[in-house]
Write a structure and sequence with these properties.
globular; DNA-binding; alpha/beta; five-stranded parallel β-sheet; 47% helix
Length: 224
């Protein structure tokens, strides 16, 4: 099945570079381009891409608001957003994740990482690499709970195993890595992740990871 990708960046040369990389892959097709968030919204409606490769800093409408408009409540299209950032941690990345992005990638990432990230996001998982997660938490740890706050009642709806899985998701582990850590199959992990998302009313793994830190279930610098 071909993954339909929309490129959104205000720099034409970057869009051209991304297009060349992606169109070399048999399972990926670039169906359109946009130079700002407003154009991105229009293109998503018309082209119905599977993945939107979204820049953060753009004129007229930035990537955060565009992501919110594309993936927010009431949107039932297939588009998932993979955010691109120039810096290790753009200050808007957290807001983009909250807005509905399925992950983020550095613009200077190797071509194979870009291709893999698009495949991961298209498959419904989150591009939440452990190394990036750690930098994210280091930057924003001052704004996260200390662990002394009362744990939300919603966590009580999870089983012990589901709590374990949520903690590992928050650390940035993939399904395969979680399966190896817990000595279970990947199918079992997918089932647990699905239960966690349903019970906590979360959209995807990114929201689950943010929730785990915001609730105090997981703390920066520790595994629990």
């Amino acid at each position: 099945m071909t993954i339909r990708v929309l490129l959104v960046d205000d720099q034409p040369l970057l869009r051209t570079g991304f297009r060349m990389i992606l169109e070399a892959e048999q399972d990926i097709a670039v169906v359109g381009e946009a130079g700002d968030g407003l154009q991105a919204q229009e293109q998503v409606r018309v082209l119905q891409p599977d993945v939107v490769l979204m820049d953060i800093r753009m004129p007229r409408m930035d990537g955060v608001e565009a992501t919110r408009q594309i993936t927010g409540p009431g949107r039932d299209g297939p588009a998932k957003v993979l955010v691109l950032t120039t810096f290790d941690l753009d200050e808007y990345v957290v807001e983009a994740l909250r807005a509905g992005a399925s992950g983020f990638l550095l613009k200077d990432a190797p071509a194979n990482e870009l291709v893999q990230a698009i495949r991961v996001v298209a498959a419904g998982e989150a591009m939440l690499a452990p190394s990036i997660t750690r930098r994210l938490l280091d930057k924003y740890s001052a704004h996260l709970p200390t662990g002394e706050e009362q744990v939300p009642d919603t966590l009580n709806t999870l089983t012990d195993r589901e709590l374990e899985v949520l903690k590992l998701v928050a650390r940035g582990l993939s399904n395969a890595e979680i399966a190896a850590d817990l000595f279970v199959s990947e199918t079992t992990v997918k089932t647990h992740v699905g239960h966690v998302l349903t019970k906590l009313r979360l959209r995807d793994r990114v929201q689950a990871a943010v929730y785990a830190y915001e609730s105090g279930l997981v703390r920066p610098g520790g595994n629990q």
